[in-house]
Structures are given as C-alpha cells and as structure tokens.
Amino acid sequence: MKYISTRGQESDDRLSFEDVTLAGLARDGGLYVPEYWPILEADDIANLAGLSYAEVAVKVLYPFVEGSLSESELRTVAEETYGPQFAHAAVAPVKQLSHNEYLLELFHGPTLAFKDFALQMLGRLFDIFTARQNREICILGATSGDTGSAAIEATRGRDTVSIFMLHPEGRVSEVQRRQMTTVIEPNVINLAVKGTFDDCQALVKESFNDLTFRDNINLTAVNSINWARVMAQVVYYFTTAVSLGAPHRKVSFVVPTGNFGDIFAGFVAHKMGLPIEKLIIATNSNDILAKTLQTGRYAKGQVKPTLSPSMDIQVSSNFERLLFELTGRKGKDVAERLTQFSDLGYFDLEDSELEAFRELFDARQITDEETSDLMKEMLCETGELIDPHTAVGVGASRVCLQDSNAPIVILATAHPAKFGDAVENATGTDPELPAKMADLMDRDEGYGVIENNGPALREMMQKFRESK
Ligand SMILES: *Cc1c(COP(=O)(O)O)cnc(C)c1O
Prior knowledge:
Keywords: Amino-acid biosynthesis, Lyase, Pyridoxal phosphate, Threonine biosynthesis. By secondary structure, this protein is an alpha/beta fold.
C-alpha cells in the first residue's frame, strides 16, 4: 500500500506505511491516507467470526501495511499489542444493555481509555522502524488527557524515542495528569501549556510545518493525525459488528467524538465493506462537528471546559480526512478550504458533499447536565457505571437512533475511574481504580509549565536533543 496527502497534488511522491508512520503529518500540511480503500468481501468478513482479536487485526490491517511489514511481522506486533496488558481476555468486550443496545468496552488497556488500542501498537511499530533505519526519533504530541498517558506508556524507557507531551494546564482530570506526570524517565518530558487543547495542537502543527526543525530532530507525531493511529482502531469495528451478525446484519455505532479519529476509523471500516447503518457523532458542547452536519459550515468556536475533557476540542483534525473523501479525493479543494479555515475561521461544504456526509453520519451535542443525568440513569437502569464521555454517547444514541432496528453499539471510550469526580458527583458512587493503579495519587510527579510559544518550545526541544 502507498499513501498520499489529503492536500497532495498528483505529482507528489507516494510513501510507504513505514514512511508515513515515522513522518506523522505530510510535508504539505495535509494528513496521510491510503491511495485506495482495500475491500473485504462478505465471505472474508464472515470468516472473521470466532478469531482472536489479534488475528482479526492481522486480517483487517495487513493490506494497509503491506510492503512495510510481512504478515508474520504484523502478527507478532498484533499478538504483543493485544496481549496481557489488556485486562480483559476478549480485549474489546461487547456488553448488552437492552434488547438492541450494546456497550463496546474499550478501556481495558494499560491507561484505561481506547487510545491504548492504537498507541500500544504504534510504540511497537516505532521500535521496528527506528531499528531498521538506525535512527532516533523525537515525538511531539498534544493531549486533552488520554493520548498523552497512552503514548507515554507505549514509549517510556525507549532509547531511540524521546517524547514531549503537551497538555493544557488545569484542563485535564487529576488521574489523567498523574498517569502522565508520574512517569519519570529520561526520555519522557511532560509540559503543561498555558492555554487550551487547541493551542497545544496548534503548537504541534506549527512545529511540524517548520521543516528545518522537523528534519533536524526527526520529529514524529502520535496524535491521530498519524495514520497508524486511525488504522489500528478500524479493527474493533470489525470484531464488534461480526459478533453482532455482520456481514448479514447492519450495525450502528455511536462514537464520543473530539478529534474525529475514532469515528473516522468507523468510516474506514465502512469503506472496506463492513455493513454499517449509521455512525453517530456524539459531542459535548464543543460541537463544531455536530454544527457542521446540521448547517454545512465548519466554523471554529471557543473551547468550553466540560465534564468530558477529552472531547474539549473545536478543531477536529481528522475531519480533513473525511473532507478529502467528500470532495471526491481532490487535494487541491481540501488545501483551499483549509487555507480559508486558517484565514477566516470557517469553510462551507457544498450541497452534494453535505448530502453524502449525512447519508452515513448523524450527530448530536449533549450538555453537561444531560451527561450527569445519563450517568445516573444508566446506573439505575442497567447497573453500569459509565464515564462522562460514554454518557455523551448514550445521550446521542437515544436522540438519533430511537427508531433503529439495527443493533446500536455505543463506544465506551474510557474507564469511569479516569473521571472519578464527575462520576461520583453524578451517581454518588466513587469508581475504583484498578489494582495496578491504586497508588497513583501517591506517586511523585514531574512536569514543566510553559507559555503558548512555538519558537521557545522548539528551542527547548533542540537543546534537549543536542544534550543527548
Ligand atoms: C480521545 C477521546 C475521545 C475522542 O476521540 P477522537 O478520536 O479524538 O474523536 C473520546 N473519549 C475519550 C475518553 C477519549 O480519550
């Protein structure tokens, strides 16, 4: 498989999976996407039934990595990734809530959110590719909470990888912060930025667009702008749909959404032939995507802090990948719209694009008050303690899919203990951290606090690199 940029022109080089994994963001500012969508036929999908999670990963992902990894190398990566560090033997278990509602539990990984599915794999891919190319890489990431801990957990203590992780100061939960800042390793640098997640993400993009800096330190991305992140997440759409009757039955997925990475993985599964009825974008009051679906205009708003901080995002980077598809894969159109977005703060979808968007997707925004009510209702009705992000999914599902005959799967994106305060305030029950994290609140922390200043950040990173 070869990869192209969402802003690319036809004459551009086509890159391998190895290249795009190490590069992260395309040099023209776009995001990498595969040159075409590989198809699994109905028989191939039916044959996934009964396979282990790791084996489904091999079948679904091999077309994307072909040319960079052999099937047996991929199998080793998948078996190591989805092994004992996932606390549930099914890796991504599906739990039935009512006659046609299901929770997909994606929080059994080492840092208790779905980000582990992709980052545990990405860490192993970095090991393989840096060893093969005999080079050291420097990761710069921005986190609204969960990417940071998952990326740090996946790369801590590595010789060939340094990781700088930016989080918005005071805007992540205490468990989220401590999962990052209590990892004291020479290759891990945690930085709290005086600003929002969008400011952190802008610092990352700005650093990538400084091509000299980028080349000097072998800059690499772990945010879902990195294709390998999105790719790894495609697998659980397949395992889940197959367990509920695919390819003979369509399934709908409700995805608590921020950066549009997780739900874009659902779109990829659909493109690959998985019968999906609807993909529901569930957002908190940071609702740029829900508004886009409702009005056709993608317009930047102010970030508001909510009970679901991992979705406090107003610029959803991966929407660019969908836009590329909606325009019929016209890189020039995408580049023009994104330039307008950075100049004027918005762009519009054409009528035909909006229609195509609405055909598969629907969207709903859920307030904090509704989120708290939903956590409480779920505990009363089903006995399940859910986290605030998952509650946003439950809320959107009840509005958008009232009359659905297809099974409805709500992605449970985080463990309730990760957002213990919000869960306890809503339900009166304090969710317990799993045993291996029980002492998290007592561990030593280390992190720096920096201004929202790109040149200063890059100078700091350069100095760190030179001192190695
Ligand atoms: C990252 C995250 C999301 C949002 O996922 P995107 O891929 O950014 O849309 C939702 N819930 C939780 C718990 C997360 O960590």
